[in-house]
Write a structure and sequence with these properties.
208 residues; mainly alpha
Amino acid sequence: MWYLIVLAAVASYLLGNLNGAVIVSSIFSHDDVRTHGSGNAGLTNFIRNYGSRTALLVVLIDMGKAVLACFASGMLIAAYGYYQEGVALGGLFVILGHIFPALLGFKGGKGILSGVTVALMMDWRIGLFVFGIFLVAYLLTKYVSLGSVLSSGSFGFIYAWLHPDSLFPILVGLFLSGLIVWMHRGNIVRLVKGEERKTNLFGKGKKS
């Protein structure tokens, strides 16, 4: 079983390296989203610089790779009775690959799109709840970062509450919650100081 665990982890990490914002900005604008704005390879920075016209492709890539990583990893070790643990394993490494992509110089995104998808794959009810937290926070404030921090920060604790006997998935959920919040530490400081930028997720962007 151990070689299957290693295979699932490595494959999921490599899938995480397929960054939607980098791929779409390269194909459609012959550019690298990481050279603009915040330098982050995520949906928010993509929309701020290129608009929402091709943003759906970014969403599909970043969510699609998380679905594939979680499902494939779960199926790899399902025969041993650890499907849910496999889903969590795939989720963990696809997020690590997204945030710290070796193939992109370890300069990736902050893991929100993929993170919400991992939450959906681990428990669709929790995933919908987490997405709801993000949506409400964003619609009320227009701060993507606030919605991201509140939603990601809640995931691990909600999972632990609903699945108290699932030790490994709980640890993965808590770790990912902490990691994604940590990736937003700069945003948190700017929010506290009142310096954070609001974002129109349906904006036109700066680049063609």
